[in-house]
Amino acid sequence: MKEIRIGLVGAGWMGKTHTNAFLNALMLFGAEAGKPVFEVVADVDLEAAKITSEKLGFARWSNSWQEIVSDQNVDVIDIATPNVFHYEVAKAALENGKHVYCEKPLTLSADQSKELANLAKEKGVVNYVGYNNVMNPASAYIKELVSSGKLGQIMRFSGTYDQDGLLDPNLPITWRHINKHSGSGSLGDLGSHLLSISQFILGDISKVNALSKIVIPKRPKQAGSSELADVENDDVISILAEYANGAIGTISSSRVATGRKNYLTFEIQGTDGSVFYSLERMNEVQVYFNSDHHADRGFRNVFLGPDHKGYETFYPAQGIALGYNDMKVLEAHELLSAISEGTPYACDFEFGWKIDRIISAILKSDSEKSWVEIV
Ligand SMILES: NC(=O)c1ccc[n+]([C@@H]2O[C@H](COP(=O)([O-])OP(=O)(O)OC[C@H]3O[C@@H](n4cnc5c(N)ncnc54)[C@H](O)[C@@H]3O)[C@@H](O)[C@H]2O)c1
Known about the structure:
34% of the residues lie in helices and 25% in strands. By secondary structure, the protein is α/β, with parallel strands linked by helices. A hairpin with a 2-residue loop joins strand 13 and strand 14 (273-278).
């Protein structure tokens, strides 16, 4: 059993989610794949670091990520800060020979992500991006439907990731609205998840054409304040895409999508069948096959079960509901196994770079109002 000592940077939502995931991975998979040890948590807000440390069981806390990236008692740096810090924290961690687990999107630009992917390869350490939807057993199932040829030739990927959490104009400005902190708006925050699923299942996109809108251009500087600040990035974005395999993509995201809460949905249409999925109905995959007898044709509802990779860890029978955190548990387990046993994983920094490369092309297309090739 190998102990894997964690240095967490960022004690917000994802910091807690990652720690919960490590604990559950240990409980569900046992310590053979690596036992997480909660060594230190760093947050610019020292009080938040202290509270999180005491609540989640870290041994120490700090207000300086610079201290912990070189800490001899830390094996993996877990980055759960706003996007802007991913690059500098990950770079320093890699330079110190640490394994790195970084939230998505990997950085603010394709160039920064490429640099990190190259550095991680050079250092030979585990480099993992938290695109947890790739770990959803539904994603493995749908990928298998596509790669086995059961759906025939893929003609189209059509998906959106919509939420209405930022519809209220009285909600104050956050790091997510400021480009130098986030890189983009709903695209990087939500759309990147959809792009990760598309990349995992269908491979590279070769060109994009995008159109975005800022629907709420100003927000209060603080809750209740009459002083306003500019919103700098997309509330809504729509993208037309062409895949390297010739399929057409229509992809969108919105953080002001009235009525939609966690509406990550996509449909893949092939010449022999189609598949539809919605994260709001996480445990169900709708599949249609042309090979069904004519009179029986229609979308069937397949409940996730032990036959779908990852599910069997949680439950022995089909149809028992998985939730968001379970994807993170599978992610944490994959990371621990990669560190302790060298097992392969999909969402490495190269994968993160591929997503950031698409995001950069989409942003360029949106600003230039033209098609942009992804090279
Ligand atoms: N995979 C997912 O489903 C998912 C979901 C939500 C967020 N995210 C990603 O996780 C990251 C964090 O998002 P969140 O929702 O947890 O944000 P959050 O605002 O809840 O937490 C961020 C934390 O980082 C701290 N912080 C800020 N700057 C710091 C610095 N320089 N050093 C140390 N700590 C610092 C803040 O004080 C805060 O506690 C983002 O990159 C976001 O895109 C991913």
